[in-house]
Design goal:
Blueprint: E1 5-9, H1 18-31, E2 36-40, H2 46-50, H3 54-57, H4 64-69, H5 77-80, E3 82-83, E4 88-90, H6 99-105, H7 112-117, E5 126-130, H8 137-146, E6 148-154, H9 158-177, E7 182-191, H10 196-208, E8 214-218, H11 221-229, H12 233-236, H13 243-256, H14 262-268
Parallel strand pairs: 1-5, 1-6, 2-4, 2-5, 6-7, 7-8
Antiparallel strand pairs: 3-4
Helix pairs in contact: 1-13
The structure holds adenosine-5'-diphosphate and magnesium ion.
The site of adenosine-5'-diphosphate has 17 residues, from helix 1, strand 7 and helix 11.
């Protein structure tokens, strides 16, 4: 296999659904037969917990922290990757809380995740990175390593400011590293259709992102229960009406990254 498609799930605002969207998009890609590597880059380790790997969070070194901050320990990443029923996972660890300051001192501070992924990425169709809720070194590493971003946001007016901050930051990274970061889509999450403001925000986001796909995920108990069970909602509840949204995102990503069904492509070419 060649280079995998790489994508980070980012929004510096906490609680908007980065981890939820990342896990469920990964699950949807897996359901389409894609080999996915999921990287939990958030020192809080929510994804690690939501994928049922809390023991990895408390594991002794070497952990993701060592592989990310010490070039001599980069190779240890192969022992850190865990198997989940839907995907492979690079779990976060309690030590990752020290990664921000440590990376500030590092040479090529924004490139360490990219160099780390070089060690393991060849086995996968996709690498999905779940970002922490701030615009720090870890986020920069995720943006540089993937150069593709999927943005979850709540259907609230506070999201407008969050988009502004995120795009300012993405622009700064593009200039700093002379790269282009592609926005692959916005996922409006936890929509409560009983709230008027939600529909207004969905319309605002659709107008603001006219050349980027916008998906709508509603508030669902099954989505929360799936996370508590350590799997995607597609795996947990095949009947959940939001599964088709995550599967649609996965199909669209396959298209955007040119990983669509080869036969179909030939027919339409
Ligand atoms: N569509 C949804 N329906 C129900 N609960 C959701 C949904 N999306 C997220 N949640 C819940 O909201 C909380 C925050 O989501 P999370 O994905 O952890 O956000 P972030 O990673 O951006 O901080 C979690 O408890 C999660 O279970
Ligand atoms: Mg999170």
């Amino acid at each position: 296999m060649g280079e995998p498609a790489k994508l980070c799930v980012s929004n510096q605002k906490g609680g908007v659904g980065k981890t939820t969207v990342a896990i469920n998009v990964a699950g949807a890609l897996a359901a389409r037969g894609r080999d996915v590597l999921f990287v939990d880059l958030d020192p809080q380790g929510n994804a690690t917990e939501n994928l049922g790997m809390m023991d990895a969070y408390d594991e002794e070194p070497p952990t993701l922290f060592d592989c990310l901050t010490d070039p001599e320990q980069r190779g240890a990443i192969t022992d850190i990757v865990r198997e989940h029923e839907e995907m492979d996972v690079v779990p976060s660890n309690i030590d990752m809380t020290a990664a921000e300051p440590e990376l500030t001192l590092a040479r090529r501070s924004g490139e360490q995740l990219d160099l780390l992924l070089d060690e393991i990425e060849d086995d996968y169709d996709y690498v999905l990175v779940d970002c922490p809720p701030n615009l720090g070194n870890l986020m920069d590493n995720a943006l540089y390593a993937t150069q593709n971003v999927l943005i979850p946001a709540l259907a609230e007016s506070t999201s407008k400011r969050a988009f502004e901050l995120l795009f300012d930051h993405v622009e700064a990274i593009e200039l700093d590293y002379d790269i282009e970061v592609h926005e692959r889509g916005v996922v409006v999450n936890r929509i409560d259709v009983r709230k008027n403001q939600a529909q207004e925000m969905v319309e605002w986001i659709n107008a603001a992102f006219d050349d980027v796909p916008v998906w709508e995920v509603r508030e669902r108990a099954a989505i929360q229960k799936a996370l508590a069970e350590g799997v995607s909602v597609i795996e947990y509840d095949p009947e959940c009406d939001m599964n088709e949204v995550f599967l649609d995102i996965a199909a669209n990503l396959d298209d955007q990254f040119g990983l669509g069904d080869a036969e179909t492509e030939e027919v339409t070419a």
